[in-house]
Amino acid sequence: MLLYSLYSWPNVVVCFFGGFFIDRFIGVRWGAILFGALLLIGHYIFAVGAFVNEFWVMEAGRFIFGLGGENLQVAVNAYAVNWFKGSQLNLVMGLGLSVSRAGSVFNMNIMEPIYKQLREHYSGHVCLGLTLFIGGITLIFSQYCTFQLAWLDKRAKRILKPKTDLATGEKISFKDIKDFPISLYLLCLICVGFYTAIFPFISLGLVFFESKYELGSGQAQILNSLIYTISAVASPIFGFLIDRTGRNLIWTNAAILLTILGHALTAFTFVNPYVPVCIMGGAYSMLASSMWPMVAMVVKEHQIGTAYGIMQAVQNLGLAVFSIIVGVIVDSDGYLILEVFFLGCLCVALISGILLYIFDAKVDGMLNLSVAQQKLRFDRDKTIEDTKEKEIMT
Known about the structure:
Elements: H1 2-8, H2 11-52, H3 55-84, H4 89-119, H5 124-135, H6 137-159, H7 161-164, H8 174-177, H9 182-196, H10 199-212, H11 217-224, H12 226-245, H13 248-268, H14 274-291, H15 295-298, H16 304-333, H17 335-362, H18 371-393
Helix pairs in contact: 1-3, 2-3, 2-5, 2-6, 2-16, 3-16, 4-5, 4-12, 4-14, 9-16, 9-17, 10-11, 12-14, 13-14, 13-17, 16-17
């Protein structure tokens, strides 16, 4: 639990400053390289600690790993907006989620066999350390990708500057943060309310499915991993559909409603558990593909990293706090009350979504426009920005 806390709690603050650091000082290219390097260094310090059986070294490595983890995601989101805003951003975000979930499934299924194979020749902490060293190969590849991506982005900036240059000459400052629109903070509420009903549910789902539906451990494991499995397949599909239809906010609110339905079926009925879990898996994919791109629609381009940093920070804070609350509820009141708690969190997300719909309509925002309307608005805003930039240069 301490090793988990060393990763999660610092990111309540670090994500915000990481996003601001990207926007204000080093830019997205060096940001991705820096935070990818922290991930790589932190992981191998952690592996060394396990190999030599020094827990304090493992703690130090885990802390450094945490400094890079969520901040690298902020940089990746900024890259996605830089390249795909106004065209295929929803599909790209969906693909990102799909690949990350596929990686999680791969990790869960491959690392244990590697450990068991090494255990035939090594034992204890040495075996664990060697397993972690092997696992770190994926981080070496990830770091290589950050350099390649930086090169591609620099090349694209030189060739297609009007489309891919994230910087507009403006620099974010701390005083800009207080002027962020209420839309961003409503998106944060949606994020926390929704993910609180997904991630803690999955972490406790194994015992829940075994106790309520009297499933064996193997079947319960398959059912509990189904949300991630579905999201790995469905996220790009929903991203593609949202890119064709627009109206991200309707998709997001629909995802919340479907998740409410899934948890209600789980809490108050004995319907086949695959039905509500499949509903929640589809809804999770739908929300991830529609919600995260909306951040880029409510802030200016030079504020993208900070905005995503704020959202990641609020998400980490919410999950860290609510994970503790969820544990207390299960221990004291059982799973039925826990499901009621999840439904309450989803209602907060739904109310936030409705308020966001009203606010966005009032300020003539982009969150619920069709694709054609979004393109017209995007082209208009781009023309205005290019005109201002030319005036500044002259």
